[in-house]
Amino acid sequence: MAPKFGTSGLRGLVTELTDDLVTDYTRAFLAACPHGGTVYLGRDLRPSSPRISATVAQAARDQGLTVIDCGVLPTPALALTSLQAENAAIMVTGSHIPADRNGLKFYVPSGEISKDDEQRIQAHLGQNALGADGPLIQDDTASTRYVARYSEAFGNQALTAMRIGVYQHSSVARDIMCEVVEALGGTAIALARSDTFIPVDTEALDPDTRAMLAGWCADHNLDAVISTDGDADRPMLADAQGTIVPGDVLGVLTAQMLEARLICTPVSSNSMVQDMPDFEGVHLTRIGSPYVIEAMETARSADPHARVVGYEANGGFLLGFPATGPDGGPLVPLMTRDCLLPMIAPLAAARAKNSSVAHLVSKLPPRFTAADRLTEIPSEASQSFIAHLRQDDTARTEFFSELGREIRCDTTDGLRLSFAEDLVVHLRPSGNAPELRCYAEAQTASQAQGLVTQYLKKTKAALACP
Questions:
Q1: 8, 82, 95, 227: the active-site residue
Q2: pLDDT of residue 1
Q3: So what's the pLDDT on residue 208?
Q4: 235-238: strand order across its sheet
Q5: pTM of the predicted model, to two decimals?
Q6: Beta strands 368-374 and 334-338: pairing type?
Q7: 95 carries an active-site annotation
Q8: What is the mean pLDDT of the chain?
Q9: What is the CATH number of the domain that holds 327?
Q10: Which CATH number fits the domain that encloses residue 423?
Q11: Considering only Cβ atoms within 10 Å of each terminal Cβ, which end of the chain, N or C, has fewer?
């Protein structure tokens, strides 16, 4: 897969992310977008990330800019620091995709780049070096500030008496998660730290991982297990039985705790939020944080005091207003996907009510989602298949014949179909990798998971996948 912009950042095979290509994109970003004279730089734990990070640093220094190298840290921690400094940032990460791929996430002084920024970067490829020699500064304080964000807002008793398993694997937040749990009064139990990069996709956990989580909960008497994807902008939370709480459910619980009033979320998210009296409005977007941010910014332009938040089905949470934590400390806006807030908020809410995460979830409207994907599917094949179903009513009716009459067809992003008994199936090419994703929604969790399994199997057969 040739490197290209997806739903969040530039992605591609490591073999194709050559020094020349990385240098070209770095220079183009700095020529096309504001940066404030300084670039904050971070990376994940992939084997290729140190080399790519060094290339980015040199390319920025060659343009005369100061580079502040924050080392290995979560993407939201890097973004928080660069936003507060009003400077640009570049994160070297491939997020949740396998280690043979990597990428770059770009931030301007006001936050994530937009889709318009991506086009401007593409138009500025081919820039020459200015021949300058900007300074390189090492700074390891960004992670400390990120931890303080939550300890100050939630206080040292928010998770008192709670035993939280931390599935560390190769997440850049593996130590930070433990620090935050302990700072909030809980007990962190570190689990399964890995020296090899593991591409954890929080939207599509395999049965073995789910069984492992349940086993840990039983063996260690845990109240929950938390984790993230590789660059820690997507959360994973399992309740005391090891049952995964979907990311869009974490988003709803977090929005409730923060007393948000306006929700911006992709069309793939659980539709229960549209029926909840807690919120004054719900804006549905295409999938990807740039689209969520665009909707949030539109809401803030209409009302600067809007209590607006955003979240995705993967759980990444975006805070668009100055909130107050349970301990009275401030939570400043962070308009990029965060992993810690949508894990801490439901846990703290459960602790405050002397309840459990599972009980909080049970009080929400009974709508259930599931998601998974087919891997190593060329984007062109996915796009062609979905376009065929979208354009050919007969082919679509035949493919989804088991579900009966189609009630609604939504083409906001991919193909999302609604059927009787509130059943929904959504097919979409991944924007970050050669994958085809399937989302489903139903009245029970088993129904939703069954729909995903059924239609991924049918899609695999239709595409003649190996």
A1: 95
A2: 54
A3: 94
A4: 187-193, 163-169, 224-228, 235-238, 244-245
A5: 0.91
A6: unpaired
A7: yes
A8: 94
A9: 3.40.120.10
A10: 3.30.310.50
A11: C
